[in-house]
Write a structure and sequence with these properties.
Layout lengths: L7 H7 L4 H27 L3 H17 L3 H15 L4 H18 L2
Helix pairs in contact: 2-3, 2-5, 3-4, 4-5
């Protein structure tokens, strides 16, 4: 199973150590990441690397701002590959990304 690698101290620093705000942002991320994951899946199914790149970019940025390093890293790999017009990495990494997002929901 994948490791989430959450840099919680970084995330807390981003919100001036406001735990309640961090929890709200994580809840928002969980909702938006579910939408982005669905968009990514649809893009893979329809062979659309441009849409996949957009979904991966969204995931990467939001994860980075919350210190969710493993999600950021996987999304970045997908985005880079899609930039070259390929969906190979997206297809390969989709299960890992889904697992990481599940781990986040279980925190």
């Amino acid at each position: 199973m994948s490791e989430l690698f959450w840099n919680k101290e970084f995330a807390l620093g981003q919100v001036d150590h406001d735990q309640e705000l961090l929890e709200e942002l994580l809840a928002i991320f969980q909702d938006s990441s579910a939408s982005d994951l669905a968009l990514l899946l649809r893009a893979i199914e329809t062979d659309d690397p441009i849409a996949a790149r957009g979904a991966a970019h969204s995931l990467k940025g939001a994860a980075a701002s919350l210190g969710l390093e493993a999600i950021r890293d996987v999304a970045m790999l997908i985005e880079q590959d899609c930039r070259d017009g390929s969906l190979d990495v997206a297809r390969e990494k989709l299960p890992q990304l889904d697992s990481l997002l599940t781990q986040l929901r279980e925190l």
